[in-house]
Design a protein that fits this description.
Blueprint lengths: L1 H19 L12 H13 L1 H16 L6 H21 L5 H21 L6 H33 L12
Helix pairs in contact: 1-3, 2-3, 2-4, 2-6, 3-4, 4-5, 5-6
C-alpha cells in the first residue's frame, strides 16, 4: 500500500511542479516541492523510505528539468535521509524547525548547482547565490513548513511528536 501511495505522490509531483507552480511563482521563483516532500516523507516514515522516495523524486523531476541528474538525486535523496535521521533524534519537530532545516539544505543544494555550472565566474557565482539561491531557499522553507503543518494536522504524527522518548 505504501508503494502505491508513494508512486502516486511522485507521479502527481510532476504536473504540480511543472504546470501549476509556475503560475503562482513569486519573482520568477517557484518552491521546490520535491525537496519538501522528500523531507516530510523522511520525517514521517523514516530515513530509508525518505532516502528511496527522495531518490525517485529527484530522478523523475530531473527528467523534466534541464539540470544535472546526479545533483538532483543527491539532494532529494539526501534530504529524505537527513530528515529521517533528524526525526529520530529530535523529540518535538515543529514547522519552524522544519523550515530552518529546509532553508539550510536548500541553500546548500542551490549553491552546489551554481558551483557545478561550467561558465560561472566568481562574481557571477556570488550574484547567483545572492539573487536566486537565497530567495529560492526562503521560498522552499516557507513551502516546507506549510506542508509540514498541514501534514501534521491531518496525519497521525506519532513519529514526529515523540515527547515520550525523553
Amino acid at each position: 500500500m505504501k508503494i502505491l501511495i508513494y508512486s502516486m505522490v511522485i507521479v502527481l509531483l510532476v504536473p504540480l511542479q511543472t504546470t501549476l507552480l509556475p503560475h503562482v511563482s513569486i519573482w520568477g521563483l517557484t518552491p521546490d516541492v520535491g525537496l519538501a516532500v522528500a523531507a516530510l516523507i523522511g520525517l514521517f516514515a523514516g530515513e530509508l523510505e525518505g532516502f528511496v522516495v527522495g531518490l525517485a523524486i529527484g530522478w523523475i523531476l530531473n527528467m523534466y528539468s534541464a539540470g544535472d541528474l546526479w545533483i538532483s538525486l543527491i539532494t532529494k535523496g539526501g534530504v529524505g535521509l537527513l530528515a529521517g535521521l533528524f526525526g529520530q533524534h529530535v523529540a518535538h519537530v515543529t514547522p519552524t524547525v522544519v523550515s530552518v532545516g529546509l532553508l539550510i539544505v536548500s541553500v546548500l543544494s542551490g549553491t552546489m548547482v551554481v558551483l557545478t555550472m561550467k561558465n560561472a565566474a566568481g562574481i557571477d557565482t556570488w550574484w547567483m547565490v545572492q539573487s536566486m539561491v537565497l530567495p529560492q531557499a526562503c521560498l522552499d522553507a516557507v513551502a516546507g513548513a506549510g506542508l509540514f503543518y498541514l501534514a501534521s494536522q491531518r496525519l497521525a504524527a506519532d513519529r514526529v511528536l515523540m515527547s515520550d522518548r525523553l
